[in-house]
Batch of 4 targets.
Target 1
Amino acid sequence: MASSPCGDGNFDCGLQIQTRSVEQTLIPLVSQITTLINHKDKLKKTEKTLRAVQRVGQAVSVAVGRFVVVGEAIAAENEDLKDEMGLACFEARRAGTAIAQLTDVSSLEQCEGDGRSTVFSDRTGMVKAARMLLSSVTKVLVLADCIVIKQIISSRNKVLVTLEQLERVSTFQEFVQIFSQFGNEMVEFAHLTGDRQNDLKDEKKRARMAAARAVLEKCTMMLLTASKTCLRHPDCESARINKEAVFQRMRLALEQVIEIVTDTRSGGEARALPVSIYAGIKDFKVKVEGLRDSLYCVSCEAVAAQLEALMEKTEDFTDSAYTSHEQRETIIQLCQITRQETKQLINTWRHAQSLKAKEATDEMELSILKTCQSVSDLRRELHRVAVGRATELLKLHSDHLVLQALKASGGDGNLEAVADYAGTLNEHKEQLVETCRLLCHISGTEPLEITCIHAEETFRVIGPQIISAAQTLALHPTSKIAKENLDVFCEAWESQLCDIAILLKEINDVFEGRRGKHSANLKTVKAAKLDAEEQTTIAKLGLELCLLTSDVDSEVERWDEQDHEMVRLCQIISSMAYSMYLFTRGEGLLKTTLDLFHQAEVRQHSFSLIGFLIESVRSLLDEDRILILSETEKLSDACQQLQVCAKTPVQGKSAIFQKVDSSIQNTKGILTVVVYLLPICYKLIRKCKSECSCVASPQHWREKQLNTTVSEETLNGNGSNGFGVKSLEQHMASLTFLESK
């Protein structure tokens, strides 16, 4: 808000507004003040007009009074901002009072007879009060926004401390405890940064924030499996390398978030994107077309130098080993045509200047048109080459044969084959990295350029991580956790390929003029149907659900009897919840909201767990039995609420969104109880074992199942419900558990 919307003065407060919430808060105030100031000089002072002016002035004064009360409360709670915030609140209150006095014109007699200054007689005083009010209110809002930034920094610092603790753990028990804390801190950080991302005004910052948050989300699961692999195989060098890469990437992403919210870089220098060919062409055309208005606004040498810089960037296309001979020749030819047309333009331009012409001549106008057309033809060809290359690569990698071969070779313990396929994956990585770089050149908007850069970095990092995970599996081919770890990194690669397909569509949409701006969300949930706020809400819930499934898996790791009935039921419940999480990312088997609701309806495994618990506690002591039954009742309530919600018919976008939200919330409730019950039941079993009692022993619990055994048929997908499929989600649940030593 650099200037006043009215013509009387500049309301610049000297503070940069970074967020939409601050800007939206100021808009009504600006509107009301503009109404007061921008009256006609010879406005007819009727009773109706005077009452309207007084009403607006009073509304401003009352609103400012309420606003100041909140600001003063914030100042009282934040000692480091107390003085600055207090001064801004004082100035806002004073300005609000001045505006109320100047607009106190309830009657014609009062307006003209008492000699007081009013909005009609003291326009300068009104403008001065308006400036002070906008300046002080803006300052209060910006200071309040600083508190939000401090919260994000504080949350990041907590995550960093826990991250360092996780990196140093040496026992699995310690890891489970710290990772649970880490999960909670990551959820808090995700909430704060998600809100900030949606609130940022700058599209580039929103895109960068989306990229950093996507890295953190994916790396959370990688950190879990990579750390467990290191704990299981502490002397394995490839496992250590794999783990260190994950921790390093998380730290860089956390640092990037702070750079965005504080608008600074750790090194102090400003962050600037490399200039893309699209941006270079756009700027070049602006300068060339600007010659119509002024022949002397830019030098001939500057235009020529800019063209050569642009031509140099096309070498990324022509020097590529993956560009065909025909494509290379076409690009070179178009570059030559552009040079020729620009040279002709400069000649006609200099001739016009020599004639002291005040505007472009007809000959120069023709050269401007030809130059702009030639550079547009070049851009079109570069777009065709980059998009065509990306489309071919996506088709080539759609079967994921190299990833499958790495998994198979690692599982066979064949290090030589892993090395061979690693070389192939490296080639694919280089192709994808270069393709992302070319897409960045022609993407069309800065947010899309940022997304291309993020994709390039992701392929560059994940490629070597897949290889190190495959080497670890080859060294320990019977290790379930090493296999799971490789699966997680392969999934990240596949997920990034899906992101490239979405990115391609967005780039084509921009090129063809079908859309105006990038959504800045790398992964959205039903993006065509949900607005930004709904997408953020669902994404947050999905992350919370994912972290709860990790907590369940970590707790199950501690059980000695991995075939225990409670373990098996909790595995399946966790797997179902994980499929919901994948739905929030637009992945997995659940493709529509109907799929999600169908899954929510089928809760027999949860009810089986309830029946199992009720039957199993009969022989427990009163205190233990009451505790288990109390939690079982909570579990039952959550299951029933989920079923009722899933079966309730709804219509309309808003109602469907609320149903999705409720389904995931209720599933979170179920997992929360499961996470709480698992360690309690585990301790009771160990206690019973030590006392040589059959009460709640593994054998006793298996005999008391009440027909709740999960059949092999169900797990293989032949059961009646939609969750028995041995899908990616099921593998995620069943492979998460650290193999027993």
Target 2
Amino acid sequence: MLKQNTPLFLPKLFDHIAECLANFLEKLGIKNQKLPLGFTFSFPCQQTKLDESILVSWTKGFKSHGVEGRDVVSLLRKAIKKRGDFDIDIVAVINDTVGTMMTCGYDDHHCEIGLIVGTGTNACYMEEMRHLELVEGDEGRMCVNMEWGAFGDDGALDDLRTDFDREIDAGSLNPGKQLFEKMISGMYMGELVRLILVKMAKEDLAFKGHTTPDLLTTGHFQTSFVSAIENDKFARRLHKMVRRLVPDCDVRFLRSEDGSGKGAAMVTAVAYRLATQHAERQRVLDALRLSREQLLEVKRRMGEEINRGLAKESHDQATVKMLPTYVRSTPDGTEHGDFLALDLGGTNFRVLLVRVRGGKRRSVEMHNKIYAIPQEAMQGTGEELFDHIVHCIADFLEYMGMKGASLPLGFTFSFPCHQNKLDQGILLKWTKGFKATGCEGEDVVSLLKDAIHRREEFDLDVVAVVNDTVGTMMTCGYEDPLCEVGLIVGTGTNACYMEEMQNVELVEGDEGRMCVNMEWGAFGDHGELDDFSTEFDRAVDDCANNPGKQRYEKMISGMYLGEIVRNILLEFTAKGLLFRGKLSERLKTRGIFETKFLSQIESDRLALRQVRSILQHLGLTSSTCDDSILVKEVCSVVARRAAQLCGAGLAAVVDKIRQNRNLSELKITVGVDGTLYKLHPHFSSIMHETVRDLAPQCEVTFLQSEDGSGKGAALITAVACRIRDAGQR
């Protein structure tokens, strides 16, 4: 067989086709227009895409040399180009069978099979993609051109074939090929009848044993004679046989009107529409796809903001605040005792009792209870919020049988705070939907103590105010001494790391290191991310409780990703690119597309029907398989960008540590917590890959934290108590 790239002359057949096309365009007066063209080529072809079709073998008596094994679209394009008097955009090459299905499918949306029984015979149908091993991807369906005329070429029909069938095959242009077609199609049926009649006449079973020269001449008994004699009974017999063989299928037959012409035009029109829509969708999504150069620029800008936040002179203007935490030591194994920990970082609040055992058999034992923070407490007064917190503490102490106990307490308070010492935290601003009045600018430890005194039931020794990111680092540091970075990617996002004291200009002293709470969610609040931000990011920001704030967080964290996806889906639907242009009222509702849906939809184990069930939950009951595929792509693009942006920020952090220590190579561990990182099927791997790529001189290990905000707060408290007790001796 000739290979596709073998240099050959251009077959005359395609010169002739190009000439016919030129004459047709001339006649219609449209020769100067570049129109999309659909090419019905009704021979067995191998297709790798819609506008490429490699002829496998000629059938139906065609024998044009130099075509088999070559792309017929390319041959036609070359013939047109050689003429040079017109131009055509060949969008689709299809088989006449596919054209038939498409033509009928225009009138009946249940039409998913095409059948040709004419000069030749063939069938096509819509097959599930998961069964098509020759094509990548498992989602949706694709029309398969069966080329069933060759059925039997392997001997599968030998026990059904007669001497007449074998005689026809022997006298054909392609003996041993298309055996099913030779038993069925119009090209051979008349000759088959002629051979039977000749044999019957010779055996005196017909025409009183007489024959005529016409009857003895090959090809003289035409298939049209059979149709005239049979009075078109073929179709009725076919329908009856199909219904008898598949009684469980309700099969309707719809006759096509010019399937090979109209069908080709329809496939072309559909392909043209889909190509245009695909290009528009990709144009929108391309704004969310970040190049390596863009990610390196994000890393560079994050590095600049880190330095601005550390420096006393530029700290106030910096978006990344680089707040000192006064955490300067990690556990050494001698800590012991019972500690309370409070964890306030989102819509839930936890109280924990943590028992730390030191020495050779060191261990950490925890008991905790979760309490909800009502919306009215989140957005009411500070007194109401802290009274609710103290009520939860009292309930927990009673639950643990420790009513009235006074224990050292670590308070994980996961909001931007300014600390002048370990047991003081001045709230700079609320994030994550909190808006309680009278708290910003105040010391949260004092607010907590005031609420405890108002209750007059117990007293607590608040030893440390801890950010959940710092707690995460400390928890992982208990397991791995190389852990010097903490990262949270959940409802919100933040990072902390051990910085050299000489660089922490807000705190006196140059010796040793201190953990710095970056509060990196605010990166971009002065426009640093504007050239990477999209209209969808701006829409989410405009409708948030804190417009213009926490811009980096809004592009990364779990609180916002679902909302970005929802806005993209709204845009696509409004443009008619999704859900047939029909919006559901539920999809118009802010927050309805939860970030957990991204994790579910992107799960490799999730079938499309489950994606559709999520869409049905959103009121999109008539969503199609294609809609599900597109929604999955949108989720993938948004989550990938989030993971890459997070990775670019983290690359800046680890490279900063490496440069601080004048190392050519740095080996470091990052302690990570947060539902997005833990539950999304691809977020962590994309983030790891980005860090490796953007900080190649750093060997970064990621250690997943187990309860950093609770256990970490208790460990920081335990370390602080150890140091305090040692100082009192």
Target 3
Amino acid sequence: MESAGGMEPAGAAAASASASKKAKEGSKSRSRRRWRKGKAKASRLIHSMDLRTMTQSLVTLAEDNMAFFSSQGPGETAQRLSSVFAGVREQALGLEPALVCLLSVAHLFDLDAETPANGFRSLVHTARCCLAHLLHKSRYVASNRRSIFFRTSHNLAELEAYLAALTQLRALTYYAQRLLATNQPGRLFFEGDEGLTADFLREYVTLHKGCFYGRCLGFQFTPAIRPFLQTISIGLVSFGEHYKRNETGLGVTASSLFTSGRFAIDPELRGAEFERVIQNLDVHFWKAFWNITEIEVLSSLANMASATVKVSRLLSLPPKAFEMPLIADPTLTVTISPPLAHTGPGPVLVRLISYDLREGQDSEELSSLVKAEGQRSLELWPRPHQVPRSRALVIHFHGGGFVAQTSKSHEPYLKSWAQELGAPIVSIDYSLAPEAPFPRALEECFFAYCWAIKNCALLGSTGERICLAGDSAGGNLCFTVSLRAAAYGIRVPDGIMAAYPATMLQSAASPSRLLSLMDPLLPLSVLSKCVSAYAGAETEDHSNSDQKALGMMGLVRRDTALLLRDLRLGASSWLNSFLELSGRKSQKTSEPMAEPMRRSVSEAALAQPEGPLGTDSLKNLTLKDLSLRGSSETSGTPEMSLSAETLGPSTHSDVNFLLRPEDAPEEAVAGNELSTKDRGPGVQATFPTGFHPRRSSQAATQMPLYSSPIVKNPFMSPLLAPDSMLKGLPPVHIVVSTRQGRGTP
């Protein structure tokens, strides 16, 4: 009993300690909830402020904090805090009038009253997000600067990072003002002196970008996406370090890349390394990085989490010509030749995905086209019951900057689409640049599109409704394939769903292209490498490109399906509503052509013996002019797609997507130094006296400004197509992101 009685105080003490611990944990939990609730309330309050009120509040808080830290003695930390708040005050006061100016005219650039969005609004919104964060942080500092728990170093580093971002945003705002002053009224793309565009691009090269990829990464986006962006940035810079040292290969595991913990714990170092990667590494690096979801382990995991389909087969379409009926007169046909550009005739790979096994999908004719994929070569589940053919068919072109990815990367969300739409999906594995530049991908996609229409019964569809879908580069191909179908006079698709399509590959300054300075996924310098490769300007030695591509084995990146989850839900909803419409829209009757078109329009527009077509001349030409121009001398020859011989040797000096005027003297183009003198008085006049944006410490990226006829071709930049061609497009549904899509204003 004594023993039992002696244990009672110990048990009571333990119970008391446990209760005390739970009370403390509960108090901490309630404190964290109150802090998060207060932060959310403050954020809502800040974003509901008008710009002038926000600026005045920030200036008042900055002056108060500046005075406090100035009185704390000569310590280095206090001086830095005082200096940073002085900088915040200066930049906020300078930025506010420029933003007010942009807001006063932003509505003039809206698509319509129901779509209040354009690049100027996006720039103002981004600047407001930065001001809002600084306002919230300034309030926090003012409330907690006397506390013994105040993390001085952390708050100082964050304030300095956002001050750098605010300074760069102020520079972009001045550039946007200059566009307003020099551009034609109501135009987003600058279409005046191309020398000014060149100056903007040179300025872009020299501007400091690392501040947007460190502590400030994704500040303009919702908080939910920031951890994803941080994961991507850590994986990118870690892989970039390995890639630069030639340490990539099969021996590099996914986890080993993330042992570079210094990039995770040091945002400033991560931002500087991110800037180095995007400015200096070649297109093969991005090919390897974006192909992360191609590796077997990650693709298998992604497919395990995706919908289970009955049919997922990789088909190899033979390079054999066939006939297609003309819309104007179905008794007449046009020959669809296999792809020939650059590498000659070759098969086109497509992936057939269907949630149900439909009639025709298990036919011997289709089975003869199946291409082996190792262990995943056949995912056709034998079933005794077949579902009737679907009325609809979706033809998909994947994204990847024209240089990376395949249908395998996009397979998880395509399986979900197949389930939700109840329609088979054909995804095209077109050849990639730089090994297969323009127009090879277009030729392959057009050939596969025509084959799918002609053989829709084998694919499990009646072909009553055919819709094209694609993201980024794939969105570009959706438009160009449709334009080419209209040029040939054959059936065009019944609808297009393009997600952030690249519609304008010609260099032209615009507000959203200014915002590419902080784009965490596709900055302008990276886009330039991809488009230059697609245009045929890539001149690097490709002998070890396959070995370089093995670096993708060492990357960790979330599957594309996770990134496009919201896109999948929205896009599939639109596709479903579109495909369910009864009947097929009537085709407009066009004038019968004198003879079937035997050459592609991309050929006709590119094969210009007198020189490249300018933008203005393209806009003035009709579809017939484009399709028949230059064909009189070759009308008696067999149909021939554009090849390397037609284009002539593609060198770094004559093909690049960053343009100068065609008649610019060679010595003027060659002088591509980045000194203040060479930028000219026009760019210097953009900034007010005393303002100096921060400059990059990295070596200048290779963004030469040479002339290229290819990027002005409407089958590469469909936005430049004349209205007579654009009128032939079917209904289009465009999905954009938080700001204007890449390649659009």
Target 4
Amino acid sequence: MTVQQVLLLLLLWMWLPHPCHTEMLFRRTPDVRPKSFGGRTSGNDGKAIHRQKRGWMWNQFFLLEEYTGSDYQYVGKLHSDQDKGDGSLKYILSGDGAGTLFIIDEKTGDIHATRRIDREEKAFYTLRAQAINRRTLRPVEPESEFVIKIHDINDNEPTFPEEIYTASVPEMSVVGTSVVQVTATDADDPSYGNSARVIYSILQGQPYFSVEPETGIIRTALPNMNRENREQYQVVIQAKDMGGQMGGLSGTTTVNITLTDVNDNPPRFPQSTIHLRIPESSPVGTAIGSVKATDADTGKNAEVEYRIIDGDGTDMFDIVTKKDTQEGIITVRKPLDYETRRLYTLKVEAENTHVDPRFYYLGPFKDTTIVKISVDDVDEPPVFSRSSYLFEVHEDIELGTIIGTVMARDPDSASSPIRFSLDRHTDLDRIFNIHSGNGSIYTSKPLDREISQWHNLSVIAAEINNPKDTTRVPVYVRILDVNDNAPQFAVFYDTFVCENARAGQLIQTISAVDKDDPLGGQKFFFSLAAVNPNFTVQDNEDNTARILTRRNGFSRHEISTYLLPVVISDNDYPIQSSTGTLTIRVCACDSRGNMQSCNAEALLLPAGLSTGALVRSLPIYNIVSYNDEGGGEEDTQAFDIGTLRNPAAIEDKKLRRDIIPETFFVPRRTPSAPDNTDVRDFINQRLKEHDTDPSAPPYDSLATYAYEGNDSIAESLSSLESGTTEGDQNYDYLREWGPRFNKLAEMYGGGESDKDTS
């Protein structure tokens, strides 16, 4: 704050009513009561009590902000008409800042401010005053509320929210065009004097711009300001309070103004005539050269479009506009021939694509130039009869079959013979070959559409007299489909059937895929390889089929897995088919068919379980592969599962018939287990022996050992306890299940007991 400003503030303060002489008196008011009020009331002693209203009248205290004196600033005085001046009354102050910012002399009622106060922090303070009898501490006046209002002084300069503003306005704008509005704020009290009244003025940027004093709107002040002459302007705006009068405080901000472009300049060619040259051998589409018209504008206002509007080569050449460089690229439209024509003349026009109607008077917004193109003579390479070739051939053709022929000639008068070759980079597998003399392309390896449906070759033609003078042509070979692939399952199916399944219940929906692509689309048929007593397949005639059960109830303890061969055929010629095998697990399910468990649990056996009965009780799984050439379920060459029925047979080592063992091992003799051996201990012992015995058969079999535990309330769930019964189990029912169970019927229906007699 300058010295002049301080002096001005002091003068203003002297002319204002001085708040330091304010006195607030506690005066008795006449006992005026509404007519509805009783005049007197009786106390406990029966004496009349006169109702009195409070004896002081309140006005606001006023206090000037930013007091700089060394003593406490005097605010005002509280006085009650009950005060006789004998010190019997005590004045008490409470409320905003009482005791800290404001203190009161309890004897005289004088109020002082203890520190400098800023109105911009708080404009008024609400306090409460009370006068009490010092001896009895009883109030002599009711507590009343009053306000200390802080008077403002001009101690805050206007401020802009931004130090630097950025704005823009189109060039060539008329005088008075609004650019941007800047607004300054003043923290002083706008309701008191002119401390917060702001006036705007321009300190820098004239004569190009002006500012409205009251609003801060910056406007253009000169007509036809041209961006091409000057683009950037810096304007400094001042905001001054006190209505802009002398002594007011001020703040400034900077506004960077950019003139944006308008299309007020037409394009211009720097030359009236342009010369270009091109060899006659240039293929169609070759770029000859470029022309460019300059435009002083920028962005879309400088965009031009080029066209050929006249000349003797309008049908021989094209011109395209390159957007990123705003050039006109002249290209070859038709093949050139030096012997036919050696010089062409074109008239090229460049025109703005975005013309502003306001500036038509500055046009026209286009220009022209003359382009002369000279054709140079060259030794021309061979010319193919086509720009590309397409050959179609079926994938099952024999080796050496000609799939098509390319032709080329020497356009020169010498008419040199032509030699053809294949670019081996386009035929790395050497599937094709070409006759060098006549251009016939033939196969050298079998074709397979499922491996590659298209072959993109490049054939080279060269003059025999000048082998370096070559021409290439693309040859596209499309391989046509024949039905040489059989359909297969679309995915791997993890199929299960519930033990409580009913006949006719859906357990799986299957679909198929085929690598072939027949013209009429894929059509598959599903059937079983042979009649199955447990399951059947129902073709949905939409390339899917349903697997259904044929009987009620399954037992995972008897048979935990079924293998179901399904034959899938297509509808093309020749018909292709394959057999896919579904592995169907038997699982325990809840009443709604949700799978719960698919493991075959072992049951608790009597203490006298024999070794033979135990071996017979363990589930043995033989994995049999099915295909079109296999023997199906009748193929038991994997190994003889009959050897597992008797422990003695296990000890008698037999070699596998499906593979040749690399090493012959001496069969290991294992001691017989006592009759009272616990099942768990027996299983653990046998597992340990097999883990360490490399000769333990069978090599490709999976033996599952499950143990139910002791004292199951379900008791025995299978025929394992038959080992302790007097009679043998009857397995004759296996013969009723069809030919697939004949082998099991032979193994278990012989009548001999498998019980261990040791």
